[in-house]
Design a protein that fits this description.
There is one protein chain. By secondary structure, the protein is α/β, with parallel strands linked by helices. It has eleven helices and 21 strands. It has a nine-stranded mixed β-sheet with strand order 4-3-5-6-7-8-9-14-13, with helices on both faces. The protein has a four-stranded antiparallel β-sheet with strand order 10-11-12-15. A four-stranded mixed β-sheet has the order 20-19-18-21. Bound molecules: adenosine-5'-diphosphate and zinc ion.
Amino acid sequence: MENRYFNPKVELLNKEELKDLQLKRLKAVLNKVYRRVPHYRKKFEEAGVKPRNLKTLEDIKAFPFTTKEDLFVDYPFGLLAEPLEKIVRLHTSSGTTGKPKALFFSKRDIWAQAELIARALVMTGASSRDILQNSMTYGLFTGALVMHYGAELLGMLVIPAGPGNTERQIELMQTFGTTCLHMTPSYALYVASVIQSKGLSPKRDLQLKRVYLGAEPYSEETRQKIEEMLGVDVFNCYGLSEMGGPGVGFECPAKNGLHIWEDAFLVEIVNPETGEWVKEGEVGELVLTSLNRTAMPLIRYRTRDLTRFITEPCPCGRTHVKIARILGRTDDMFIIKGVNIFPQQIEAVLMSIKGVAQNYQIILEGYDEMTVRVEIDREFFDGRLERLLALKNEITEKLRQAIMVRPKVELVEPGTLPVSEGKAKRVIDKRTL
Ligand code: ADP
Ligand code: ZN
């Protein structure tokens, strides 16, 4: 293990020491935003709290949340806690509606996040001998660039491939002996299917060992499918631009939940309606406070991502808190016939069925109607209708059992549905059109 980025004094710290460290950092960050960010001072005053009121970590409950809307007050520089001359980078998050969120980084922020990533990569068994093909989108999006810095800091050879041009991706893997990939799960499914259809054997023709998948929610079944197709270990990696990008949560070899580095983040899970802490182990919205960011630290940021704490100690020995894979975003959820549904529930069913290929789409239309369009293996289109029908019935029935609603299922040939290289758009809601 690369010792430089595995520091037992931080990663194996006992809970009490970890809490002391967090409290010290939390006090400092609350003080800083209160003094330097007028919007935070105003919010704290409205809530009747002062940084010095915080005596224990639990006292954070009295402090106001930061929401996405707060990022647009005094946009774009309003939440800066450092002067512009200290800011070295801008990232934005996709911003599907209206203005994109603008997030700023100081030099220290860039290297601090890179270090969290280096630590996470070492945790998964990677080292400076690995070759990382980074197939996330480079540019304003944090996904690629932030990971890039982390991997370079560790000393990996980084191939800044970006997404798309799948033939070229595979060529790069073959030519340079790529051992690690970083991409979205939806694109990974596609890349794996192209590798398969070219008749390449991952074990014989490629050197892949680990695949880091993040930027969008996906199911355990998808992980398993990609692991089988590519003969690799898939690690879930979670992050959001507001907290510095990827590297916020990362799986260890136990592959049962993501550790969040608690020396860098204060982690809460709240009931999205009441804002109260949920009981341990219950699902709620992840709320994060940056403990060591300097340019634009956010306090109690409502991520809109749903998860729960995993409370059992981790076999890897790290004491930093673990969350379950993200169930979905509060804004991804849709309601059909009164039932709350997340796309991942549908994906989990599909990816566990033999005969289902790599791509699917959910279409909502009319009055409460849902159609699931699924790509299935080409061999099912050999004219044997009974077999096709049996598969369709199996998919419909398994979906009904999982989500309590019977969807319309359409089976299509591989390559029919649009491929996404970045974040996939799984749900097409025509009800609002
Ligand atoms: P946005 O997508 O909101 O424009 P980002 O590009 O910063 O902003 O993406 C962050 C979001 O992506 C997270 O809040 C989360 O919803 C999703 N995400 C990132 N990584 C994962 C992951 N491993 N699992 C599930 N969701 C993820
Ligand atoms: Zn662990």
